[in-house]
Every structure is written in structure tokens, then in C-alpha cells.
Amino acid sequence: MQRTHKSTAPLGSRILGSADESPRRRRIRVQLLLTAPLLITNLIGATLAIVLVTFVVPGPSIIGRQFGWINFIALPIFIGCVFLIGLFWGTKRLVHDLRWATENQVPTTANQRAALRGPWRLTRVQGFLWTAALITFTTMYGVVDPSTIPKVLFTIAFSGITTCAFCYLLSEFALRPVAARALEHGVPRKAAVLGLTGRTIFIWVLGSGVPVSGLMLIAIFNYIRPATTDALAVSILAIGGVTICVGLSLTFINNRSSAAPIRSVRLGMEQVTRGDFTASVVVYDGTELGLLQTGFNRMAEGLRERERIRDLFGRHVGHEVAANAMLNNPELGGEERDVAVMFVDVIGSTTMAATNSPTTVVALLNRFFEVVVDEVDRHGGFVNKFEGDAALAIFGAPTTIDDHAGSALAASRAITSRLAAEVPEIRTGIGVASGVAVAGNVGARERFEYTVIGDPVNEAARLSELAKSVDGHLVASGHAVEAADPGESRHWRFTETVTLRGRLAETTVAVPERPVGTRPTTTTVPMADDQM
């Protein structure tokens, strides 16, 4: 199951919540995050304009009885109307238009574009209101005293541009939950959002270019209407200080906005590095960084798919064979390997199939094979084939193990013990043989499988048939017991020598749980010729 990366801030900040929170909480959160910062920003902008025009920018004073009706009546009324229109009406209408995101509806392309253009939409509203203030108050003050026009015009323009810059960055931050919902379904074409380069230039123009231009305008106005040295120094120091603070703040917010998506991808990469391919990041940026987040999710999805295919491949052919095929280019053919082979076959499978439903038989066989696979894997081998009600296990190929014969013998004893305890409904005959066989890929170039072909395979199959008529139903070839380490071979004893059907050489038979070294007797056992 795909899991979003669990960081403390999936959207880049804790105050933004998570992408999967309830629609009602998301709507309230977005409304508050849009209203509060914009209210504070516009208050600061208005205060900045009043301070600059009153105490900083050189020129005719606007403090006087002739300006009283503007300063104490028109200005408060206008500011109040601007706040009501620009903040509450503007943000509420925007949130209403984006209600699809707070109601968990699937966005259309138009909805996606509207979500990504939301910051520009709010910024345009703020720009329109500040432009209205610029025209209104420049006209009012100009009617009373035309010489105040340049001073008022510059101050309101400077404060308005700075406020709009903060409005854009803060609204982009507040609308991340909405952008995340929009970008869940891909990035729309012509989204009309600033890229990294455009956003950086935009911040530089508003944070540095405009204030420096203001200082240049003050210098130009000083040539037209010379100001005192003290007034000019105050203006330069004040506007320079504002430039430093505003530029630093805008740069900080912009860098945080750019770093948050990169941080989420970095945390996701760390999760993938630890082997957790369920990692996923929330895509909430409409710039190139959003494409980076989307690219990471696609990469993680590809890794999950590859891991799933590798797991399925390993389940079908064996994890050792799958790992070997991935490391080496698989080709037809094989090589001689000294291996041990174990063949496990169910006794009375025909009767079992006739007296039980197919579903019951399959469930029973699955329990049987689960024990076989578990013990074979635990002893370093792998199950090469499931042949109906039988299984063929190989030890020593494709992965070399030190005591392949001892591992096969130990696995066969463990399987016999566990089947008796865990699957008593089934009796099996188990044969173990050891020797040189050819291990490799057999088939056609378009379709082949890894297998082992040789005398040990045939011998193990014949021994499994012999085991069905022996107490304990487990036999091994003498060669396998002799090839095993003493720690395992001491659990086996020789009983007799037989000539198995289809083989010219005699096979010394060994069974478990008696001292090794019993002198074998020679007999010939006629057997049906089983097809592998």
C-alpha cells in the first residue's frame, strides 16, 4: 500500500496541517491563513505609508488643519473599506470558488488552474485596492496642496508594492493544501504560475529594485526641490532600513517556500534508501519544484513496481534464481555443479483428490508446500518445481553452500517431523540424492526456466517412491550420507543396496535415526517408471 512520507510537516509547515485532513478543517484553516497574514501585512503597509509620508520622505508637510478632513475622516474610512473588501470579501470569495478542494471533489482542469492562480488573484485584488488608494489620496492631497503630489504618490506606491509582494508569498503559502489537492491529479498546462526564476526575479524587483528606485527618486526630487541635509539623511536611512528588512523578509519567505519541497523529497529519498519503497511526498508546488516532487513519486512508484515484480519473480522461480538472474545476464545452457536433490511426493494423492473437494485439496496441498518451502529455505536450498502434489528441491545451485548434502538431509528430517505434527492428513515419501548435475536455463530463447538435470534428480525421484514403502517414509542415497558432514551423517544408517528402475548403478539406501555403518544387503527393487 502506498504511504505518504510521515514527516512532521507534509505540506512544508506544521500550521498547514496534512493533505488528508477533513474538508471542514481544511476550509477553516485556509480561510484563517489567508485572512490573518493579509490583515497584518496590510496594516503594516498602511502604517509604513503613514510614517514615510509624515516623517521620512522630504517634501511639504501633510500635517495641518487644511489636511485634517483627509487625515482624520477620509483616511480611516477608506482603510476600513479596503480591509472589508480586500481581506474578508476577497479571501472568502476565493475560498468559496475553491470549495471543491475542501469538499473532496475531483478537480477539473479549470479548478486546477484556479487553485494555482489563487495567489495571483489575491495579489491583483490587493494591487487594485492600493492603486485605488494611490489615485484617491494623491488627488485629495493634490487638491489641497499640489506640491504634495510627488511625496504622496511615491509613498503609497512604495508601500503598496511591498504589501503586494508579501501578499503573494503568504497567500501562496496559505493555499498549499488547496494546491496539493489540485496537483494530486497532475500539473495542468498553462497554469500561469511563476517558475523559480520568475519568482526570484519578482522578489528581487519588489524587495530591492523598488526601494532602491525610491532612493533614486528622492535624489532626483532633491535636485528639483532641494531638501535639508538632515531631511535627506533621515530619508535615506529610513528607506535603506526598510529595504534591508523588507528584502531580508521576502528572501527568507521565498527561500523557505523553495526549500520545503526539496526537503520533502530529501526525506522521501532517505526513506527509500532505508529500503521503504512506500515513500511518497505531497505535491503542492506549481513550479519546477512541484515537478521534482512529482518525479520523486513516479520514481518511488517505479521502485515499488520493480520490487513487486522481483518479489513475484522470486516467488515463482525461487529468490536465489531471481537474484542470480538479476546479477547475471541469463542465457540458455548450464554448468556442472555438485548438488543435493530432495524429492517430496504425496502418498495416496489420487484417493485424496477423489474423496475431497478441489478446494479442500488445494488448501491441504498449500499447507503441505508451506512446510516444505519453509524448511528448504531455512537450510539454504530452494524449491525448483511444484509438480502437482510433489516438490523438487535443490541444494548447492544456483547458490553454492558448504555442506549441500548435509543441508538436504537435515531439511528432509525436519520436513518429516513437521508434516507429522502440522499436516497429519498427508503422508509423503521423501528421497534425497547427491552428485554431479547440470544446473542452468533450459527451454527456448523466448521462454526458459532454471532447473537441474542429471542422475541425482532421477535417483531422488526413484528414492521417493521407495520411501513410500519404508517405515518413516524417508530414504537417502548412501552417497548423499557419505558426502554430508559428520554432524549430519551420524543421524543416518545404511540398510540395503538396491537397483532402481532406469539406473545401471546400484544405490545404497540409508534411513535416519540408527548408527551409521550397518552392512548393506543387495536386492533389486522393481519400480514403475515415473516421468519427471
Walk me through what this model shows:
It is a single chain. The protein has 532 residues and is of the alpha+beta class. The protein is built from 17 helices and nine strands. It has helices at 23-56, 68-97, 99-102, 109-116, 118-144, 149-174, 176-183, 196-224, 229-273, 288-317, 319-327, 349-355, 358-378, 404-422, 455-467, 478-483, 486-489; strands at 333-347, 382-387, 390-395, 427-443, 448-453, 474-477, 492-498, 507-512, 521-522. Strands 1, 2, 3, 4, 5, 6, 7, 8 and 9 form a nine-stranded mixed beta sheet that branches. Strand 2 and strand 3 form a beta hairpin. The longest helix has 45 residues, at 229-273. It is rod-shaped, with a radius of gyration of 41 Å. It starts with 22 loop residues before the first helix and ends in a 10-residue tail after the last strand.
What labels would you give this structure?
single chain; 532 residues; alpha+beta; 9-stranded mixed sheet; 17 helices; 60% helix; 13% strand; rod-shaped; disordered N terminus; disordered C terminus
